[in-house]
Structure of TRAP-type C4-dicarboxylate transporter, periplasmatic component DctP:
Amino acid sequence: MKKIGLFHLILMLVLMISTTAPAANPFAIKLGVVTKPGAAQNIMAEKFKKRVEARSDGAYTVKIFHSASIGNETEILQQIQMGTIHMGVITGGPFDTFDPIVRVINYPFLFKDHDQADRILDGPLGDEILKSLETSGFKGLCFSENGFRNLTNSKRAVTGPDQVKGLKIRVMSSALHKAIWQALGANPTPMPWPIYTELEQGVIDGQENPLWVMEVYKFYEIQKFMTLTRHVYSPHINVASLNWFNGLPAADQTLITEAAVEAARFQRKDNREKNAARLALVREKGMQVADDPDVDAFRKRVAGLKDLDLYQAPRVQDLLIRMLEAVK
């Protein structure tokens, strides 16, 4: 009787353990961003992490590698291609070395406002871009946002393109962004993120980024002049390794996609609601802000970019024509 009782006790313990512990160790999704906590990419990544972990019943965790701890954006994309990390929240610019079709959404002065950007990028034209990324080994999930990009510099007030001439402006690793600033007369200098030290030491005169960058990276400490050019609407593209994603069960693919879309919508709304306070902050910190630059003059200087080789691949040219028609 004692042996039977012991057997039953062991069996009960085994059953208790099997019903309270997860069926398997959670799979850790590795997600890379180059920015630090509080930045737009990180807000997207952190909201995605919460959504996935809450809804997967312990099947997934998300490990965020932030602050360029695993490389710059181009290097993160290369690691996603190789499958050494699973996902990334990446600025649109660096994609153009992997798939030139992304140059279409970085075309200068394409979108007039946030509503138009959302309508296009969340619609069939945006889906076409995300689908195209599969040829480079990426699963395009959705667009979150960096925001409308503005010029800052330490040399002089800029209200029109003539005052841009000769400024050494940091740009992303993007042939298009380099071409934009060449057309405006600047000296564009491709440089990976972060760039605070280079600005502080005068290696570069200025840079161009959305308002959140001024706040999070405190560029108001080292840049005196801001011009609200809004020359490019800069999305973040949320991507996964295509091979990894395609190897997941269909239900898990849906879970990850829906979590990314929900996180992106949250991040875009959050980013836009904070912009007025960010603008007030940089003024309070002493930046001189040109609110009403001669945007028409800027636009005329870059109008010829659509005729450059950057846009001559047939499928890129075709999408650009349709995109320009859609935003009229």
Observations:
- The radius of gyration is 23 Å.
